[in-house]
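User: Can you predict the 3D structure for this chain?
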Amino acid sequence: VQLVESGGGTVQPGGSLRLSCTSSGFIFSIYDMSWVRQAPGKGPEWVSSIDEDGENTYYSDSVKGRFTISRRNGKKTVYLQMNSLNPEDTALYYCVRGPRAVALHMPRWGQGTQVTVSS
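Assistant: Here is the predicted structure, written as structure tokens:
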């Protein structure tokens, strides 16, 4: 299993970023996928999940209305569109294979992508 995250960077408050997570080594289209983030000095926090066909999406209260998760099974990729970013969104973001219920317990196969929101 390999997950490669990209798209992070440094943005000003109110800015936007689009994260991507490209997979290999497993049948992407049959798995729910999730995004998790970890801020410095804090534990991992579940952010969002999407079911295997993309019809159902779920968000933490802290990002609901600002973030949008999506996927393209043909490209074996899951995305996280992040709008209206604020400094509290600063974290290492990574994707995991699995639904919300197990997202925080799944292995982290990728390196993650750093998001920094700062003026």
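The longest strand covers residues 17-24. Helices lie at 100-103.
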